[in-house]
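To whoever is on call:

I kicked off a structure prediction for a single chain this morning and the downstream step that reads the tokens threw a length-mismatch warning. I double-checked the sequence; it's 312 residues and nothing unusual in it as far as I can see. Pasting both halves so you can look.
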Amino acid sequence: MKISFWGVRGSIPSPASAQEIKSKIKRILRGASGVDLEDRAAVDDFVDSLPPLLAGVAGGNSACVELRIHDSHFIFDAGSGIRPLGQRLMQQEFSEGKGTAHIFLGHTHWDHIMGFPFFAPAYVPGNQIHFYSCFDDLEERIADQHDPRHFPVPLDAMAADKHFHTLVPDEPHEIAGATVFPFPMFHPGKSFGYRVEHDGRVFVYASDTEFKTTREEDTMYLENADLLVLDTMYTFEEALSKTDWGHCSPFIGVDIALAEKVKKLALFHHEPTYDDRKLERLLEKTIRYKEKMDPESALEIILAIEGQTVSL
């Protein structure tokens, strides 16, 4: 399994501002004391040594995560991040109309479907696009976005073959050689997570959701995940004031991950008003919280960053 992050923001795309980029440049230059800026190799080494959120950005696209299992492409949510994913896929068999993509939607709030009209492989005849969700009216929901009042190209004009599959929650489904379990989560309008098992590895995608407890019946599908991509949109304090908004916090995520013996936790669905510096500090606080709660646990905590790939 290889998991790549193409969109990591929640609610709405939020590109880095000019002020944020200027702040990064200042931090980099302050840290460059002693580096011979006339020495190209020294500059390259210095830049390569910078932490990811200083050398780059967490990313501003809304939710889209790709899971690759051999030659199969599993795509979780179709936020604006699916557009650059589509561009990469067009460098492969999808440009010839010979590609197959499996798109799993947790729900159909706009930030999780808004990128599909810009998914280039869907315009190529011969490509097979399979949609999966637990909503029996998914095709209608997707087509609504292509209403001429909202978008100039109707869904039927996208030339790829499109197939819509309704999944049953809490039941296993064999898809492209993997076992997929959709499970219900708490979010306004309903939302579903996905647990994918293949060759002894477990990947769990859980966005958007608000875990109110760590009871086993609420978190059982997260058990022993090699990687859990979890909606951790709010700080703990913000989550307390936004009860029933359908989003989680990093500290609650740690509690759940420890209880379910998760190996790696990816903080995901970042609040659009958080700049990278705040996300960096939030990650640091979350790691300290984990060490306080269970210093013996091997749980690894990472921040989901666009362009990042995790191998399981």
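Update from on-call: the warning came from a stale cache, not from the record. Cleared it. Sanity check on the structure: The longest strand covers residues 178-185.
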